[in-house]
């Protein structure tokens, strides 16, 4: 295989193949995140073309976010059983097919099926759980940095493509914008098929930072065991208080980021006469600073107490959302918010992944984080639907921003309940 030849060539140059897997994963998550982020551009064009209410469209987007999160634990189990590459290729095919089919939809139920179910399942199998699984399997050293890179690709990809998608939508229509997404998905699929490997043991090497060869874990042959493994993992990790703290804080993370700002930002700005392209440009600014902030958060998580990092990140995010709700949405105020909020967009992910690995062990960390990430997306779905409902009732998004800010401050306080892991937990020992 091409990957075997590349690995041998890199080994002679003292470069670990884990970095090729990391780069491939980074680009894949960037591509799928672009498909996720396009939802923010779709709301107004779909409302204008088909007459569907913003509430109905938001409901379909909320279903997508719920499935995006709930698939996380099962995506980790699928990767353990079928292999990372097979799962990712299947997911990319679903995303690409769903995007193509949605260009021909004419009924609301088709939007729910394609954007709610098909894209929800496809993107759910290539979400942050993919990055966490790759980082845990392929890296012992620099794991926090790698998680930061993966998280940055996922979050930034949902934002940086928006100005281009908004421009394509405004000039040529939303179907042309989706065609661009399809092309990116196809490129990602080719890279995964050529370069992705499931485990360091497949190449007879150890994880980055390990001197000994890492053996590939045995795979269960029973499909029933595959489906039950996420539920078994939930039963085990739910006995540890740290799981519920991380689940709640990540619920708030989703509620205050992609569920609220990413989904409704263009509509929020539209209430203050900010043009869609300009609003999408501000989201791109958030994405650029998110890239910087998340990688820096990964670097910090390798060196400092991750509990203190989470306390700071959630607290600062809450203050930024409250500031936005009280601002006048002038250019200067929006620019300050975009920079400050962008640095903290998903900086919470690397510390959360590190704390999950510390509390639940390497082998179960992927499944445990999958359930924690499910909390993230439940929070996102709550905000996607709830913000739309509040906008309809009060004719403004400001209550939604203030509620999200208050929840972030509560999440910051709840981090105090976490104890510093001293030894492996019972779950980790059982693993």
Short description:
Helices cover 79% and strands 0% of the residues.
Please characterize this protein's 3D structure.
With 431 residues, the chain is mainly α. It has one domain: Up-down Bundle (Growth Hormone, Chain: A). The chain has helices spanning 2-12, 18-37, 39-50, 54-82, 84-102, 108-124, 128-138, 143-160, 162-172, 174-195, 223-237, 241-256, 258-270, 276-301, 306-326, 331-343, 349-360, 362-394, 398-414, 426-430. 58% of the residues are buried. The model is unreliable at 423-431 (pLDDT under 50).
- CA-CA gap between termini: 32 Å
CATH C-level name: Mainly Alpha
Inertia-based shape:
globular
For the largest beta-sheet, the strand count, sense and barrel status come to:
none
Q: Give me the CATH fold name.
A: Growth Hormone, Chain: A
Q: Quickly give the CATH architecture.
A: Up-down Bundle
Succession of helices and strands = HHHHHHHHHHHHHHHHHHHH
Give the rounded overall mean pLDDT.
Answer: 83
- Low-pLDDT segments, ≥5 res: 423-431
Give the helix tally.
Answer: 20
Task: Please specify the SSE layout and strand pairing.
Elements: H1 2-12, H2 18-37, H3 39-50, H4 54-82, H5 84-102, H6 108-124, H7 128-138, H8 143-160, H9 162-172, H10 174-195, H11 223-237, H12 241-256, H13 258-270, H14 276-301, H15 306-326, H16 331-343, H17 349-360, H18 362-394, H19 398-414, H20 426-430
Helix pairs in contact: 2-7, 2-8, 2-10, 3-4, 3-13, 4-5, 4-6, 4-7, 4-11, 4-18, 5-6, 5-10, 7-8, 7-18, 8-14, 8-17, 9-10, 9-14, 11-18, 12-17, 12-18, 12-19, 13-14, 13-18, 14-16, 14-17, 15-16, 15-17, 15-19, 17-18, 18-19
